[in-house]
Design brief:
- There is one protein chain.
- The chain is of the alpha/beta class.
- The chain has eight helices and 18 strands.
- The chain has helices at 25-36, 52-55, 87-101, 159-168, 194-201, 211-218, 228-233, 320-330; strands at residues 16-21, 41-44, 105-106, 111-119, 122-128, 132-140, 147-148, 175-177, 182-185, 188-189, 192-193, 221-224, 237-239, 242-245, 250-252, 257-258, 269-270, 300-302.
- Helix 1 links the parallel strand 1 and strand 2.
- Helix 1 (25-36) packs across helix 8 (320-330).
- The two termini are 31 Å apart.
């Protein structure tokens, strides 16, 4: 069933000021910014409800940001500010955010293609598996997690892999393979949450183009709370990169082998921008061309990418800064905020 949380112009009516693709944290953040600036807009999403992606993740998943660092602009994350929300709590928070502000969302609407043709004041046509929409501008807020990365054979020891290994080890033997170096930091340092230090020091808000931001970005994947060294001390067997596998045996880079009964792929995802059918918007590698989310194609924007501007650009509690930047770029100075 297709639902919209607030009555707005429908397909075939006058063009929207903005169509936002994706009703996750990024889409909701930009939606609230557009609402405050008085724009007519619609958020379209393939899922059946807000928060569906969070709800679909593994049962014991918790955020590595405390609740005080996990809220979108205008609505703090509820509960103990020093607690670490579960994935279901994150999903419910996003749903509450959309409801609290009455954001216009059309669910069960998968975007298949975005084209740019100037007609009746609309620069863009957004094609979906149902209706077709027209808008002067489009914000692609689908985030970085569309296509699973399934290499020849790697398990993965970043945040997801470490969390899952920790849980599974409570009831069975676990082997963890890591193909690249990671940087592990404790969840709390000197009695303070790690993100207190990252925020206070300015690291979380440092531009990826700044000297500080470049050093932070180039220092490797940040694993928070659990390190492979800690896992090894608890009895998890840690291996280097997988080099070969058949129906029964997995071989590692140090020539050791195991015969696992199950494999958990914790190798991450890649974004998919193939729906953007606009010359100059996507580069040869399939990544969007942009400057802090602003495309060289007038009226096209991207939001929620890792390191779009800072380390926090793809995080629930920090994406609001990029959303505000894009909304300010969309909105002429003469348009008053609502």
């Amino acid at each position: 069933m297709t639902t919209t949380t607030q009555t707005r112009p429908q397909p075939g009516d006058s063009p929207f000021d903005v169509i936002v693709i994706g009703a996750g944290q990024s889409g909701l953040a930009i939606g609230r910014q557009l609402q405050q600036r008085g724009h007519t807009f619609l958020i379209v999403d393939a899922g059946g409800e807000v928060g569906h992606v969070w709800r679909s993740r593994w049962d014991s998943l918790t955020l590595f940001t405390a609740a005080r660092y996990s809220g979108l602009p205008g609505l703090p994350f509820p509960g103990d500010p020093d607690s670490y929300p579960t994935k279901d709590a994150a999903a419910q928070y996003l749903r509450d955010y959309a409801t609290t502000f009455g954001l216009p969302i059309r669910h069960n609407t998968r975007v298949t293609r975005v084209t740019r043709v100037t007609r009746d004041g609309a620069e863009f046509t957004v094609h979906t598996d149902g209706a077709t929409f027209r808008a002067a501008r489009v914000v692609v807020a689908t985030g970085p997690f569309q296509n699973p990365v399934v290499p020849a054979m790697v398990v993965g020891a970043a945040n997801s892999g470490a969390q899952i290994a920790t849980e599974l080890h409570q009831s069975r033997p676990v082997a963890l393979a890591s193909g690249s170096a990671t940087r592990a930091l404790p969840q709390r340092v000197l009695g303070r949450d790690l993100f207190w230090w990252l925020t206070t020091s300015g690291l979380i808000s440092a531009s990826g183009q700044s000297r500080l931001g470049r050093r932070f970005r180039n220092s490797g994947e940040l694993v928070i709370g659990t390190s492979t060294r800690q896992l090894a001390r608890t009895g998890v067997t840690v291996h280097p990169r997988v080099t070969a596998a058949n129906a029964t045996t997995v071989t590692f880079a140090d020539s050791t082998t195991i015969t696992p009964t199950a494999i958990v792929w914790a190798t991450g995802y890649r974004p998919d921008y193939s729906l953007i059918d606009i010359t100059g918007a996507i580069d040869a590698a399939g990544a969007p061309v942009h400057q802090r989310g602003v495309s060289p194609v007038p009226g096209l924007y991207f939001l929620g990418r890792p390191w779009q501007h800072t380390r926090g650009s793809a995080l629930l509690g920090f994406v609001g800064a990029d959303a505000e930047h894009i909304a300010a770029h969309i909105t002429p100075a003469a348009v008053p905020a609502a």
